[in-house]
Amino acid sequence: MSPRRFLPLLLVCSLPILGSSPPRQAKKAVAVLRFDNNTGDARYDHLGRALAAMMISDLSVVDEIQLVERERLEDLQTELELQQSAYVDPSTAQNVGMMVGAEYVVTGAFVAVDPEMRLDTRVDRVETSEIVKTAHVTGKKDEFLALEQELADSLVDGLGVVLSGEQRERLRAQQEANRIDDVETMLAFSQALCLVDGGDYVDGFEQIQKVRDAAPGSKIVQLTFDHMKDRAAADAKDQAKERAGRAIGGLLGRKRAPPPRSRPRPAC
Asked: How many CB atoms lie within 10 A of CB 102?
């Protein structure tokens, strides 16, 4: 075959190869709800807030996953005044997922904490209400990082995401950066989040300072500290103005309008 005839044939044969790269897949929208306390010990009622926050922060480095903000989920659950556990009732998880535009919802529960922690988790597909993954994770309560890593791996697998070696290293680096080693510090972190979720930034900031002292190298704790700092300062200033206004109004004999009703605050 002459070179002139061979060249067009080569170009034609090359076209499918040049256009064969697979299209970039859309990210999977995922909502991680706070985990329930099924231990029977009220001391752990808010521990699920911290774990959900940790999972959201850790999985945020996985390119294939788009996570719903924890604060948005907390606001929604408060507004709906959910009485039924999203872990117990898949339809509750499905409703929340639909309202935030999530494709998958992750729910879970603490079954035991002492002497070992056990977490039961589930991944639901919102569109079909199908349970695509269940897992039981068990680990020592004072080795929280290992427990967290096992849980993250389980959730990634349940979402059908295959991590490359580089992606897995990035996930491990994020987990190490967020590291909190023991349950007691996680409980303190949970209380800080609970106060913030209820709009109490002043007390929440005082609490997160204690957490930062206990876990000084934790990235997620530092970010929460930074977020609360400005809000706490602004709220403290507003509270001081309100107290001064009430005092002046009392001296002048004026009646001040009652403050607007706020949403019920969680008992932290």
From this structure: 25
Q: Which fold has domain 28-189?
A: Rossmann fold (3.40.50)
Contact in structure between 154 and 119 (CB atoms under 8 Å): no
> Residue 190: what residue type?
S
Tell me if residue 168 falls in helix, strand or coil: helix
Q: pTM above the 0.85 mark?
A: no
Query: Could you give phi then psi for residue 5, rounded to 5 degrees?
Result: -75, -30
Q: What would the pLDDT profile of 129-177 be if each residue is shown by its tens digit?
A: 899 999 999 998 888 889 989 999 999 999 999 999 999 999 999 999 9
Residue 225: what residue type? F
| 14 pLDDT more than 50 | no
Instruction: Parse the chain into domains and list their residue ranges.
Output: 28-189, 191-252
- Taking the C-alpha atoms of residue 268 and residue 42, their distance in angstroms, rounded to an integer, is 11
The structure tokens listed for 210 are 């204690």
| Beta bridge pairs of residue 36 | 109
Closest CA to 95 of 108, 110, 79, 111: 79
